[in-house]
Amino acid sequence: MKSKTFLSIIMLILLALFSYSSGQNTGSENIVLEGGRMGKVSFPHHIHQNILGDCNYCHNLFPKASNSIKKLKAEGKLKKKEIMNYCRDCHQSKEKNKEKAGPTSCKECHHK
Ligand code: HEC
Ligand code: HEC
Ligand code: HEC
After folding, report:
1. Which of 60, 63, 97, 110 has the most C-beta neighbours closer than 10 Å?
2. pLDDT tens-digit profile of 89-112?
3. Any atom of ligand 1 within 6 Å of the Cβ of 66
């Protein structure tokens, strides 16, 4: 009995060390966001993490949880299209500076 308890403690410590060293949860590679009457928006999450290098570009505006944008919109803490404008502004300014950029027109982002 005692050695079993000891063993489980060791296992717990190993598990804790493993989760610590494997770093933070970077979420899904690709996310489909709700885009109202214009249709859904596919968002390549990990491409953005790699190219921007800082989670806070977005997660200063909404938490690292799925459907957090929808939730904040429903609570009136984010305006409709507020995040959309934020996405598009970044793409537009990159395009202006002739850097790699994402889509800027409605139909490039929204789909069925
Ligand atoms: C360019 C914007 C952007 C950046 C940068 C970004 N995220 Fe996200 N993240 C999102 C969006 C959009 C969602 C989905 C929110 C929703 O469903 O309402 C999300 C959701 C998540 C989730 C919830 C699980 C999921 O996949 O839906 C986690 C965890 C997460 N992000 C972690 C991170 C981490 C860690 C970083 C930095 C390494 C990061 N994100 C950088 C936009 C971004
Ligand atoms: C860079 C990608 C992108 C572009 C370009 C874009 N959208 Fe969006 N749109 C989104 C995202 C992401 C959301 C959901 C988040 C939000 O509401 O801020 C959204 C939300 C919406 C909504 C729903 C708002 C609500 O809550 O009712 C409508 C309507 C919409 N977009 C219309 C348009 C129209 C019209 C255009 C072109 C003039 C356009 N979008 C261009 C990404 C985009
Ligand atoms: C701070 C800048 C920034 C923000 C914010 C941002 N993006 Fe982007 N996005 C980029 C850049 C840079 C690229 C080009 C990546 C590449 O080509 O490697 C890109 C590319 C994309 C692409 C095309 C990916 C591909 O495979 O070609 C889509 C779709 C996209 N973004 C959607 C969004 C949506 C939706 C949001 C908001 C939730 C968003 N982006 C927020 C900078 C941004």
Report:
1. 110
2. 999 999 999 999 999 999 999 999
3. yes
